[in-house]
Amino acid sequence: MKIFVTGGTGFIGTSVVTHLLNKKHDIYVLTRSSRNKSNQSQITYIEGDLKNSKNLSEIFDHIKPEVLIHLAWERLPDYSLYTSIQNLNYGIEIFTIAARSGCSTILSTGSCWEYLNKYGKLTEENTLSAENSFSAAKNSLRLMGKAVRSEFGFNFYWLRLFYVYGPNQRRSSLIPTIIDSFQKGHPPQINHPENKNDFIFVDDVARAITAIIEKNPQKTTYNIGSGHLTSIQDIMNETYQYVCKKKDLQITKMFEQSKSSMTEGFYADISRINSDTGWEPKFSIIEGIRLYYDYFTNTHEN
Q: For labeling, which of 9, 213, 218, 240 is most exposed (least CB within 10 Å)?
């Protein structure tokens, strides 16, 4: 298939493009810089910008991709009203352009922060939130995607991602910060190590996206997470054991003392995507941390 990807050079997009290439699809990646080149015959970088709808229309009319995967969300971690509205408008515009060009499938990514409830297992039918600009914009984009689908007719998918981690993640994010701290010989400064979240390795997200576009399931919205909670202190503990290869009494005591104050978080019910596509997470948190540490170390040294 011809697949057009926005955000294909970013954190999640890099992994998605790799998985699609392994499946022998022809990939077109939107990029602002013409310097991005590839020695892969199946990948083409297209110079363009989400702000330039006329240019995007010309690109889509020329390529005529069968699938659009819209991953771009500019200026993260800026969740301000202005940025959220701008990204919402970019999404609506590219959905419409893709639909007019004859795209048969459009897939875009949302966030677990769209849900109002922040406790326990969350299904795709849970109540949604508009308590901040980011969640309101994501919810609005999903609704507009469905509206565009109603007018033009195509498969539309909305994947709510939980806490994604892995290679190419921002160095200021949680797990890179923990690794960096231990490498420098001191415990990470985490305000609430007792908190629990649903962490999902980026390659598992890429596998989920690939499964959706290849199997074309009937439903629209899917949760993408590990399906269980992991505490931040457990991540610190596992990371410490792997990075430092030994136990430190002071750090071990810190972990033990905070266990009593652990709080429950929210996590994904992934039964829908499992039932419809057969997808399930492949990487445990231990495997994911070790893979990410190897990547982190190699890129840091280079």
A: 218
Which of these ranges, 16-20, 97-101, 170-174, 280-284, has the smallest mean pLDDT? 170-174
How many C-beta neighbours within 10 Å does residue 184 have? 8
The Cα–Cα gap between 198 and 285 comes to 10
Cα 142 from Cα 26, distance rounded (Å): 26
Report CA 12 to chain centroid distance, whole Å: 5
Range of the domain at 180: 165-198+228-268+276-301
How far apart CA 164 and CA 226 sit, in angstroms, is 10
Of the pLDDT bands very low, low, confident and very high (cuts 50, 70, 90), residue 249 is: very low
As a whole number of angstroms, the distance between CA 118 and CA 121 comes to: 9
CA 293/CA 20 separation, integer angstroms: 24
SS3 155: strand
Q: What is the pLDDT of residue 239?
A: 87
Give me the CATH number covering residue 105: 3.40.50.720
- Candidates 97, 84, 81; CA nearest to 6 is 97
Residue 257, pLDDT above cutoff 60: no
The CATH number linked to 293 is 3.90.25.10
E strand intervals along 220-270: 221-224, 230-231, 266-268
